[in-house]
Structure formats: structure tokens, C-alpha cells
Specification:
Number of domains: 1
CATH class: Mainly Alpha
Number of strands: 0
Membrane topology: Multi-pass membrane protein
CATH superfamily: Rhomboid-like
Pfam family, one: Rhomboid
Order of helices and strands: HHHHHHHHHHHHHH
CATH topology: Rhomboid-like fold
Helix content: 55-70%
CATH architecture: Up-down Bundle
Distance between the termini: 39 Å
Radius of gyration: 26 Å
Largest sheet: none
Keywords: Hydrolase, Membrane, Protease, Transmembrane, Transmembrane helix
Protein name: Rhomboid family intramembrane serine protease
Oligomer: single chain
Structural class: mainly alpha
GO cellular component, one term: membrane
């Protein structure tokens, strides 16, 4: 047995540290207080900076130039439907005319202008994610990106983080265009990419912690991802997903407190979420946890 004490007369094995040196080895509260509040991975900080910077630069553009920017780089489902889905331009215009809203005549004129060249502009499946409809829109997406992008970046690294963001953005754009094939209003925002990050994080953030060889429990981004059946049985994951889908329903259909923004769409959120959920296991550098058998 080992004892923390020493017997009288035995040579001391404890190293004596002078008081001044012992004091210097203690944590410095002033040094700790200077640590950054938000210790974001560089790729997450740069991503948020790019989104904010692009929106800030757009404020210096004229309304006409900014409008042309939206038409060139936003997702317009009717444009894809005409270019790739075999839909006739006249079919889109007739659908716009049948709309009972007072803006129907303006939408018809916009439809003629956008669809006149017949180009699909497939790059908009990515570029739309860099544009936002308002400062509140870009700031909310930035907050969620910091919250859920951080564990993904720490776990997977820069390349896989960007790959997940890209495929989630494309998935959101495709599902939105599929469900609104005759829509002529531009759709923009990084919400689909952020939703993909949220879905990816749900694989491991709520998994049980394990002890590492150095004697500490795993952090959230270090935990091995659970199997799909274990996720379904995990109450925390179900609550998280339930709140997320309820929030999408609330803002997509009910629009509480007058909140309405044509530049965001629940279909894009769901599309990005589903793609992120399916794609993350292919990117995850850590091995999965063995499935836990029900008791």
C-alpha cells in the first residue's frame, strides 16, 4: 500500500517549493479573466465574419444593384423548374396570374424578367446561403452557427466542416425548390447549412460521456456518435428535435408576432437538416459507439 505520509527519520520524497515559486505556480485570476468569452474555431469565426461582411457590403449597393445581385445568386425555384424540370415559362406565368394577391401583376413581370433567358444557374444552390434578408436574419444564423458549428469544427476539422455546410445548403435548396417549383420569389439565407450542423451535432452531443486515458470525461465533441436506434431512444435528442421542428412550424406557418421573412423557408431548414443527418456519418472521423441494447 502507498501512503501519502512519511515515517519519522525517513528521507523526504516530497519536493519543497519556495513560497515565492509556489505562489507563481497558482492560477492567476487576472490571466484567466483575460481569456476570450467565445473561443470559436477559426473556420467558424471566419464563416460568421464572411456572412456579416457580405451583408454589410450590400448596404453600400444601390437598390437596383442589390436586386440584380439577388436575382443572380439567390435560389429561384421556377428558374430551376424551367431549366431542368421541363416546365414551360407560360405555366409559371399562368400560376402567378391565378394568385389572388395584389402583387400578382408584379410577380408576373418579375417572372418574365427572370425566366427570359432560360438559364438554371446551378451555382445558386450554394451562393444563396451567403445572402440574408435583414440584419436580424444574419445575426440569428450567426449565433446558431457558433453554437452548433463549433463542436462540428472541433471534431471534424475545417475541410469536413465546410463540406457538411455545403451539402446541407444544397439539400435545403433542392427540397425548397422541389416543394415550390413555380415560386419566383428569391430564397436566401444560411439557415439550411446551420440546420445541417444541428442535425450532425445531434449524433454525438447527447451521447453518454466516456472516460479518456488521461483521466477526464470526454467533451461533447469528443463523444462517439450513437446509432440511429439509440438516437431515437434518447429522450434528450427527441426533445431537441421536437423543439426544432416545432419552431420551424411556428415560424413557417403561424408566423407569430408578425414575424414574416420571404427570404427564409421551413422547407430549406428541413432539407438541410435531413442532409446533415444523413451525411455526417460519412464525414465523422471517430468510430461509432456500439449500439446499446434495451434493458
Amino acid at each position: 500500500m502507498r501512503s501519502s505520509g512519511t515515517s519519522p527519520g525517513a528521507p523526504s520524497l516530497v519536493r519543497r517549493v519556495p513560497p515565492c515559486k509556489a505562489f507563481s505556480m497558482m492560477p492567476n485570476p487576472a490571466r484567466s479573466s483575460r481569456e476570450p468569452i467565445l473561443n470559436l474555431p477559426s473556420v467558424v469565426a471566419w464563416s460568421i465574419g464572411v456572412l456579416v461582411g457580405i451583408h454589410a457590403l450590400r448596404s453600400f449597393l444601390s437598390e437596383e444593384t442589390d436586386f440584380r445581385l439577388l436575382l443572380d445568386y439567390a435560389v429561384i425555384p421556377a428558374r430551376w423548374a424551367v431549366a431542368y424540370g421541363g416546365v414551360e415559362v407560360q405555366e409559371v406565368l399562368n400560376a402567378l396570374r391565378r394568385a389572388s394577391s395584389p402583387e400578382s401583376s408584379s410577380l408576373v413581370a418579375l417572372g418574365r424578367f427572370v425566366l427570359q433567358d432560360g438559364e438554371g444557374r446551378p451555382w445558386t444552390a450554394l451562393t444563396y446561403a451567403f445572402l440574408h434578408g435583414s440584419w436580424s436574419h444574419v445575426l440569428i444564423n450567426g449565433i446558431w452557427l457558433a453554437a452548433f458549428g463549433t463542436p462540428i469544427a472541433r471534431r471534424c476539422g475545417t475541410g469536413r466542416f465546410l463540406a457538411l455546410a455545403a451539402v446541407s445548403a444544397v439539400g435545403g435548396a433542392v427540397l425548397y425548390a422541389f416543394m415550390n417549383s413555380l415560386q419566383i420569389i428569391p430564397m436566401i439565407g444560411a439557415s439550411a447549412a446551420v440546420s445541417g450542423m444541428m442535425a450532425a451535432a445531434s449524433w454525438f452531443m447527447f451521447a453518454p460521456a466516456e472516460w479518456l486515458p488521461e483521466g477526464r470525461p470526454t467533451l461533447a465533441h469528443e463523444r462517439r456518435r450513437e446509432g440511429l436506434l439509440d438516437i431515437v431512444r434518447n429522450r434528450q435528442v427527441l426533445i431537441f428535435l421536437g423543439v426544432w421542428f416545432a419552431a420551424n412550424y411556428l415560424f413557417g406557418f403561424v408566423q407569430p408576432f408578425g414575424v414574416a421573412d420571404a427570404s427564409i423557408a421551413w422547407e430549406a431548414h428541413v432539407g438541410g437538416f435531413l442532409v446533415g443527418l444523413a451525411f455526417f456519418p460519412l464525414l465523422d472521423p471517430l468510430p461509432p459507439r456500439r449500439s446499446r441494447l434495451p434493458a
